[in-house]
């Protein structure tokens, strides 16, 4: 399992459209948005998904100015 928390910056006018696009990505949840275009997002992937692919897709989403990882946790579920 992989969990990452991100702060994503967009233009305020693009925030809602980009939020909708991000929600189509596997494991993405939006926890907060601000009037100045920031989104607080978590990405949770299991062993069948690659977290890096989802994070790359976020960075490549048109309208995303920046996406900064603020927290990341990884656990090999097969060992627990």
Task: Give structural notes.
The chain has 80 residues and is of the alpha+beta class. The protein has a single domain, classed as 2-Layer Sandwich (Alpha-Beta Plaits). 22% of the residues lie in helices and 42% in strands. The protein has 2 helices and 4 strands; from the N terminus they run E-H-E-E-H-E. It has a 4-stranded antiparallel β-sheet, covered by helices on one side.
Distance between the termini: 11 Å
The overall strand count is 4
User: Which class best fits the helix and strand makeup?
Assistant: alpha+beta
How much β-strand is present in the residues?
A: 35-45%
Brief sketch in words of this structure:
The protein has about 80 residues and is α+β, with helices and mostly antiparallel strands.
Question: Which key features would you list for this structure?
Answer:
single chain, about 80 residues, alpha+beta, Alpha-Beta Plaits, four-stranded antiparallel sheet, 4 strands
Topology diagram in text:
Layout: E1 2-10, H1 15-22, E2 28-33, E3 38-45, H2 51-60, E4 64-74
Antiparallel strand pairs: 1-3, 1-4, 2-3
């Amino acid at each position: 399992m992989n969990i990452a928390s991100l702060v994503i910056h967009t233009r305020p006018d693009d925030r809602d459209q980009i939020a909708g696009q991000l929600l189509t990505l596997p494991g993405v949840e939006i926890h907060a948005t601000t009037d100045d275009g920031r989104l607080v997002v978590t990405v949770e992937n299991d062993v069948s998904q690659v977290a890096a692919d989802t994070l790359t897709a976020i960075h490549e989403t048109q309208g995303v100015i920046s996406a900064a990882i603020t927290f990341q946790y990884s656990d090999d579920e097969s060992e627990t």
